[in-house]
Amino acid sequence: MATQKLYAGAKLRELRTRLGHTQKDFAAKLGVSLPYLNQMENNNRPVSTTVVLALAQEFGLDVTELSEGDSERLVSDMREAMADPVFGSSLPPMADLRLAASNAPAFARAFLELHRGYREMQERLASLDEALGREDARATPSPWEEVRDFFHYCDNYIDAVDRAAEHFAERQGGFRNIRVAASSALGNAGVTVEFVDTDRLRHFDPERKLLTLSRRVAPETQTFQMLLQVALVRQDALLEATLDLARFHSPEARAIAKMGLANYFAGAALMPYGTFQRRAFECRHDLEILANDFGASIEQVAHRLSTLQRPGAKGIPFFFVRVDQAGTITKRHSATRLQFARFGGACPLWNVHRAFETPGQFLRQLAETPDGARYISLARDVSKAAGHFGAPVRRFAIALGCEVRHARDLVYADGMDIARASAFEPIGISCRICERPDCHQRSVPPLERRLSVDANRRDVLPYQVG
Predict the structure, then answer these.
(1) What ranges do the domains of the chain cover?
(2) Between β-strands 396-403 and 374-381, what pairing exists: parallel, antiparallel or unpaired?
(3) In CATH terms, is domain 317-426 a member of 3.30.450?
(4) What's the predicted TM-score (pTM) here?
């Protein structure tokens, strides 16, 4: 597969502006001519190897940041949005989408927000919502979607919150003492912690400063909820400052994001960045070992692995997703080229859907996406019982994966035939934008291909994709 040229004009301009350099000064430090720098910043030329080395040596830049981040996510998101039937039957060329994502990222995000508003309005009409004449019928971003995109475009890594959580854990004697540390921190804030027999996971009474936790849930869940409360009562100023920078459209989005940041703090304190990353590489990312070492659940460990994207100290770029039994994605993040559908479910050929059939077991899969990228994917069910007879069980499955080039650092790759091309199962993102013409699980035709229907022929699909 040919090496893709690196176009990173927006990131070059951002770095130069942040350093306060003129184009002339910046070009001199990079050892290139002024016209050449101008062409790179406008994506008329790819970033050369000489410039990449100069960026690393002169400015200490983590050069992986040039090829990762917003651009690929924006391309994937725009491609999915453009597959909406409202845009007709043909998609813009990938080159045009990449150009828009790299040269005009603000415009690309505005387009995605406009499309999201359109979809929400259509959903209201489709469900016969009688709010058409009311003020709340305006096509404003869904708070939930807005917060999801905030974390999505932050690479699921919030530096200030992550470092604060790591500092908290280290100051309190490390992660092995974290439950006692959480209890002590709450006590110092005047908060009393009680464990009671209830279905409610956590309840905080601000008047009485009483935190009530369910004794029915697992110890790691109790510890996580205590740390979450520590974030809310001891790190409020940090959370609010982070929210100010995000500039959410509504109070609801801000409130949802605050809980997301508190959850982030809890996970980062339970599994402090440096210690957790080192242990992950030592055990080759064995989820069960990490769960035992850090007193966390399998899902908490998998999610934490997907957040290890600190500049200058990045871990393996993982994707992480959680789905319910209907295939709806309830959590998603990808630090890889693999991007999930913003709307609807995941590809039915993906092993995460089979995890419900084999509870308590890890399923491994070698998969290849239409762009030729190859991954190893790990899936497992994470059903959550309420703790007493007759209570409903919440059933989910999670998937964690990375590109197969990281196989040597992944214990789950042992024994898999990663050198054989036919060992990789074809998967996609969503049927509307999947380019595979002969997928037996296809639910709707691909919009970018012509269809033909032969009344005298019936294959797996009732049509042929041109």
Answers:
(1) 9-67, 70-140, 141-315, 317-426
(2) antiparallel
(3) yes
(4) 0.72
